[in-house]
Amino acid sequence: MTTEINDSIDYYLEVASFNKEDKRYFNKAIIYIDKAIDYAKKHGEYSKLPDCYLVLGGVYYDLGKPDTAIENFIRSINLYKKNVPSANLALAYYSLGKCYLEKNKIDLAEIYFNKSSEIYGALNFSDAIELINIQKGIIQKNKEKYDEAISIFSSVISSISNESFFDTKVEAYYQIGEIENLKNNTNNAIDFFENALIMNYNHSKNIQLQKKILRQLSNTYKKNNQLDKSQIYLERYVSIADSLDNFYNHSLSENTFDRIQFDKQLKTIEQLDKEKKSQQKTLRFSKLISILSIALISILSLLSLSLYKNNKIRISTNKLLKEKNKELTIEKERAERASKARAEFLATVSHELRTPLNAINGIAYILLNEKPKATQLNYLKSLEFSGKYLLTFINDILEINRLESDKVLVEKINFNLIDLVENIKTSFNEFIIENNINFHLKIDKDIPPYTIGDPTKISQILINLVNNAIKFSKNGDVWLTIQKIKESKNQIVLSFEIKDNGIGIPKDKQKSIFDSFSQGSVEINRTYGGTGLGLSIVKKILEILGSDIILESDVNKGTSLQFNLTFDKGEIIEKKEALQESENLPTKKTIKILLVEDNKINQMITKKMLEQKGIFSVIIDNGEEAIEHLKTNTYDLVLMDVHLPGINGTEATSEIRSFDTTTPIIALTAISLNENREMLLSYGMNEVITKPFVPEEFYTILFNFLSNTEE
Fold first, then answer.
1. Does pLDDT of 635 surpass 90?
2. Is 573:693 a contact under the CB 8 Å cutoff?
3. Kind plus residue range of the DSSP H or E element containing 294
């Protein structure tokens, strides 16, 4: 019963504050705040999330991590602003100002201190306002406006009577002492430091304040040639500093801090290359087709060659490691560097290819919709096919790279396994008919419909295996069989088998068939196409899920691929009626969209796609102008490129949300390994569209948001 009573957000925050304030166990404080955040999200108590982020920001500030503290204070402010202004919102603004003051960003610090002061004033918290006045005085001191600073600190000293705020009064005495020191009035400085020390001892007993006062007294007496007194205060300072250092060394686990730090945050990559500044203005139609086709072939050839070479290097390195055991450590480090370079290269190249590929696919789509001549149609369809093939190829490469990184998380979602399998089968209906396949779906009746697992990864596995079975079994049969192996109270083990009676796999190729870019032979690649990455992706996903795949195959007799997966039992969910996607936009008013995009070709393509649906658009090529423009103009929707010069799309969106919380903002990005949908949405974006656009998905997302806006 004790666990049930204590399992709440308030409990976790109370324990976190106890560990931070009383015990100075910062790692434990972070762990309990993390539990409070997870509890709030899991139980839908979103109103308490800003409190969690406010406390977490305070912990990171005390740890000397101002950048991390700023992120959490901003999150709490964005959530607090949805409600009536409160003391906690004022405290968040105040804390954010302190962070920027520590980073010496004076202008930003003043802005947030003023916001905090306005809220405290409205709430009639006069003592709290003195906290802000202290910071304003420090700002004036940093600007070397000593008289104005002393005036502010003196006002603070005379205004505070509540003992709860005596820390602030002590700080004011201390700051005046520092100013007198800067003005070489050492005797006056000593008087103020002594007053601060006595008041702290009698009322606050703040160890951190005592420590810095003792240090300044030692330095000031030394400056005043009173070396005996300087030595006394120095010894007291060293004694406190040593005890605090020992205490912190035992109270903070860096491993725990790093784990939480890196699990919670994902950072964006800056663009590596500047976009070309000028584009050729006039090109004849036939020349455009030729250039784009050559570009596709060149890019694909270069990418394939580089991947092939990297793959050869990896195989060669592995053989060398086996032959030279004495050089194991050196060769292992070399292989790790090569693997890291390969991963970074693939991620960068795949990411950067998306922007020109968006231009290729977009222009092909636009031209196909503009009633081309019959003589041009075949060229355009070839261009469209090549673009889609290259996009699939790049996506497969990114997926392999992502699976080999440490960024893959296994989800635990309650889902209907039976519906998932049947939907996958339905999605292959056209492909089944095209290849004249008899498809047999067999599902054990004893399998419960709802299980807990990762439906996305299971879909990837089944889609790749079923696609291969159909592709290599033309005019034949394909079986997808799911059976229960064993069952306990809370779990069930299922066997999946995908079987066909197609061309089969030779015995000498079966060991290498799961390697990247392996398809058995050159003839198979030429006949059936494909990238040779499907089975490699399947094997890596199954390894992540804790399983393995068993292959049985004979040439011209067929292939069987089987694997087992363990699921937790799920709960039945009532099905909701699916929303029908609208084919047409609302017609009650003229639709206006703001497009924030710096690439000229992408501007042209996106504007043209919008015009084809009768949508009026305005183009701005940087984040700063977009922010100012939206302050005085209204739009039905904003399309925001993530990678912009100057202020990027996420920073611009965060700033826009400070004055506009209703206009839908959709991110446009050539998404990469270190950039994901959840991270982009956390900045206030409503949805993400990946470059290069798939026109049907692009329009569907726009229509959904524009329809909601119209309602």
1. yes
2. no
3. helix 285-323
